[in-house]
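Hi support team,

I'm filing this because I wasn't sure whether my run with adenosine-5'-diphosphate finished correctly. The job status page said complete, but I'd like someone to confirm that the output block is well-formed before I use it downstream. Pasting the exact inputs I used:
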Amino acid sequence: MVGKVKAQKLARLGIETIGDLVTYFPRDYEDRSSEKKVAELMDGDECSVFLTVLSDVTANRPRPKLSIYKTIAGDDSGIINLVWFNQTYIKGRIIKGNRYIFYGKVKKRGSYIEITNPIFEDENAVRKKTTGIQPIYSLTEGISQNWLRMVQRNALDLVIGKITEIMPDELRSKYSLTEVNYSLEKIHFPSDFSEKDKARKRLVFEELLMLQLGLLHLKKSQAGVSGIKFEKKQEIARFINDLPFRLTNAQYKVYNEIEKDMTSEKQMNRLVQGDVGSGKTIVAVIAILLAVLNGFQAVFMVPTEILAEQHFRSIEPMLNKYGIKTALLTGSATKKEKELIKDGIRNRELDVIVGTHALLEGDVVFHSLGLVVTDAQHRFGVKQRAELSSKSNPDILVMTATPIPRTLALILYGDLDISVIDELPPNRKPVETYAVGENMRQRIYRFIRKKVQEGRQAYIICPLVEESEEIEAEAAMTLARKLEKEDLNGLSIGLIHGKMKYNEKESIMREFSNGKIQVLVSTTVVEVGVNVPNACVMVVENAERFGLAQLHQLRGRVGRGEHQSYCILICKSRNEIAGKRMEIMTKYTDGFKISEKDMELRGPGDIFGVRQHGLPEFKIANLYEDMELLKEAQKAALDIAKHQKLEGREDYKKLYRHLSEVFRGKMQEVALN
Ligand code: ADP
Ligand code: MG
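And here is everything the job wrote out:
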């Protein structure tokens, strides 16, 4: 259908088969349905005009690579100028005295009217280009809009009418979904926008329904997997009793949900969601204890070495009391250390391993792995989750500090059971948050001094530099030096950034943790999970560069002890969105609330690092615009799953077969060339 060269170019757009092509949806549309007379034309109009060409086309070549073709054309209401650049074919095609339909963007200066590079068709031809609604596709080098439209048209002509409808009638009528052939035709070449909207609704619904069904299916197939049946242990109550604090009701509730999973025959696949500071770690530790008391090993995986170290330091002594041996395994351990730990894991000398992903990738062989806890889920994709559990059949507990609205949680974690710690430990004072301008800088520094004199500590977070960790590190160094010499001189200032070696970071964090460093200047490396309860001031430079998720995480670094804490957002931008974000931060402290607000503000594609969650890429759905449809699709999926329609009924079987094909990544395997 297309040549080899073009086929290769299409492949760059992810188009390899006819199925890929007809599901390569327009990113926008151009409305060419408007027609006007010359006298009605206004500057900026995009419309078609019927015109008689009044002069021969003149060619002009001011520079070697530039040729300009001009002519004059008119109707009974006036005349206009037509200009083409570098379109050599114009000369033979536009003939004086003939009538054509021209379409393009009108430029009008006083009585002078011009259309540059108009598209045109013979007056008597079947109009294709100068009328209707034209799709606009995302392109790649060597593929033009017009060419892609033509190929798309040909592809549709081949398949439309032959595509099997997989959506059961019941669903189509319940949710008012158009038929599949109609929908594919009209999404590309609608006669009007309402046709396009109907077509789009059907296709979006299908896409979201497939995703939901797929996740539910995954969940169900996991639910069938048998796992380890742990026994309840009395020591658990003793351990909880010995804690320096009382568990919150929410922590109890979530632990009970975990225990129920762990003591059943089935494999646990549970996500624990909880805002920063809600006390997820201890819940995980209790689960780990249960696993080890049952004679199994457990792993606690975290995204960064700093976190691994921190968790190790807090967990190790708690478990040690019960004779449990915990080891830290991170990428920066020496080869020999790693070998020793791996031996210990293999021959069951070690019970609990706290570590980074290095664990996952390496050749670690467990003697008897019973439980995997992964913290800060947002760095793990769906795929890694699957890989992890396929290694053996341990119970899986995923912890995330990223509060996301329930609808989204269902998309991201539809394959997991979800527990929410929806309560903070008592007596937490909400962090007082202020968004201020540059003019407050000196007052902020005085405030930091005062707090340090009172014995507290502070964080100062440097501007985010997206492009380069080097520039970011550079900026952090400059700021730290300046503070040391001038604004905060006399205080002990530490610096930490992403370009430092692990050991350096580690020792700085330790000094901050034990109070030797009073003010920590840092890039966002402290974002996740760091716990220094004595720190009570968080200053964020250029706060407008951070997303709400990050700001919320950063703010979560303070307010972790008994001291009243403060978060000061220095914001230079007068930009409206930035302003709204600052307002949200000063008004709300609840992460779930903030994530909802964030979603209203910018759409879920960006919120709370949803991309990093391993959100599948959609061909047509847009989670922000299509939130209502998403809810309907979720309802439909749950309904189908609940009534086991996929198994029982003929009409749903088709849907299911299609689903499994989609999940295997197979659409129509018709080669393009
Ligand atoms: P996160 O949910 O952000 O991971 P952590 O597990 O790090 O939170 O807990 C934050 C702090 O709160 C820790 O210092 C922890 O010891 C403390 N904490 C946890 N649960 C409670 C509780 N029920 N009462 C008081 N403090 C608690
Ligand atoms: Mg934590």
